[in-house]
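Record 1 of the preview.
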Amino acid sequence: MPDVSVVIPAHNRPDELLRTLRSLTFQSLPADAFEVIVVDDGSRDDMAALCEAERGLADAIDLRVVRNPESLGAAGARNRGAALAAGKVLVFLDVDCVAHPDLLTAHLAAQATRPIAACGYTYGRELTPETWALRVGAAWDWHAIDEVFTRAESHEVLRDPLDELLSPDSHGAWAFFWTHNVSVPRDAFHTVGGFDESFPVKGVEDMELGLRLGLAGLATRFVPTARALHQPHERARHRDLLRDRRNEFLLFTRHPLFEVEAVCSFDLLNARTVIPALDAFTARLDPRSLDTARLSALPAATKAIAEAERTVLIGSSAAWPRDLPRPAWTVGPTEASSADTSYRLIGTRLPLADRQADLAVITDYWRALPEATACRVLDEALRCAARVMVLCDVSTAPHRSPDPELSAALGPGDRPYWEHTVAVPREFQQFRFIGLDRAEPPQEHAGASRSFEIEAVDWPLTRLSDLTAHRTE
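->
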């Protein structure tokens, strides 16, 4: 029985597959210690026939090729390969990742001490043929394995970002479980249920598995000695960015956790510093700054709440008026999470479908947030609710200005790398605040309680060339 099973999902890309398989014939791990399972996921070409025609390949490694008549997607293909695997360690290798001779030895050694979700070192993760030509130069001879990795080590542009991003104490480390080149114990993989095949397209399903492995006790760890080189191929970057944001939304709705919200809102890179900053913020947050102690003084606001069938409250339901129906959902950083009704979240992501709520009510909690982050809470509320209402001076002890430590942390952190593709609101002027009512305060209270209904302002993005070519008002 082999120690390692290498699972390679293959949808087309026959040339890349053959190079990857050829690289596995040079492994330092003895050939009888591993097997290779290629899952032909509805490719145009017959991958099994292609592999059989490759001289010497079948004699050098224990290779099986199974075919899905129709594509199941990357998750389904990997699951099928894992179901056939006999090795105690599963190595998932992408079809376009050439293996270093010590790749399998390194993965096996990494799993020897304790079970982990292991991420290997992958050179050139994101390069296309065009960017390779621009930044590296001419194509390499992929068959000269030793030379390929010697050259890769000398090119800074090919360096794996995980070398810096994934340290043992990284917050949100599961989000870096990218299946170019990873390993996991077979038993642990099956215990957590393998890859989630319900994602409609590829992307984020590997992170989601990393999260479930983490919840099951397997830390995500970087194994720099398990090296591979990603062969450049064409990719539709804009499409991929949109696809991943959609799949991140699905990830969050399935796992509405504080840490997942941070990864999906601020991006997995920024989340490493944002998560501890948010934890510290919630620890020092006065619960009285989020409550609804003076809500009853606002007749228009209470009427809107009474008439709504499903209200989502962002803040805290402490001191909620007894004569009003309870919110269907409560979201806030001091909430104790409970199934389907209460979520400990910042509010930049809500686990609700579009317009699932009739009304969203945001307490004075928004005042503790930097303006840009508060705008993201408003924007998400508008997505989830037919009406959105913001309260001011309704809490027992509302913040008078944003939390300075959180503002300092989110200044650089609230700039997700995808914001050039998916709009992220930054200013209150991107919304209309329509006054609903105002109650004069008692003498001891600092301000008049008031409520506003909000609407989004049309805020199209443009290019500088559009401004230089045409006059604008």
